[in-house]
Design brief:
198 residues, 2 strands, 57% helix, Ropporin-1-like protein
Amino acid sequence: MPLPKTMFCAQQIRIPPELPDILKQFTKAAIRTQPTDVLQWSAGYFSALSRGDPLPVKDRIEMPVATQKTDTGLTQGLLKVLHKQYSHKQYVELEDLEQKWKNLCLPLEKFAAILQLDPCEHQIEWIKFLALGCSMLGGSINSAMKHLCEILTTDPEGGPARIPFETFSYVYQYLAGLDSDISPSDTESYLASLGEIV
């Protein structure tokens, strides 16, 4: 069907008054998040915006620290984005989590690798998935716990990154239980000594 030969002028085109602000906020979010696949991320952004869900947007730009050979794209900032989207849920559906993972332009191989650490069927406890993601960022349980505390804290950025001891203890026991090098007695004595300090 041929296009009509109607000429449009500025008076004939109606632009919704909220469109410039939506596009401005979208542009700022894209600059902060730096998605590797802008179209995939944009689909997730506008889908979340239309549903009123938390947006897949980082709080600030993260400078890349990994080399080309080891860079998997997963960062503390992206895990924090996922936490904003799921912190209100105790359990998350893996299908929904995988879609949000893809919307952040993260490789599905990394998602599968995280789930291989503690296989599950259709859903996973959110705090456990977050802990597993943090363990992928660092080489040790202490590094994973540091990332987790920085994501979960309500303290101002650059502060002590405190979280409730019960949460810390629960996640530490979970991660230590997956590490064959850490004995249950070592875990208990570490948490007991830390509990005395707290």
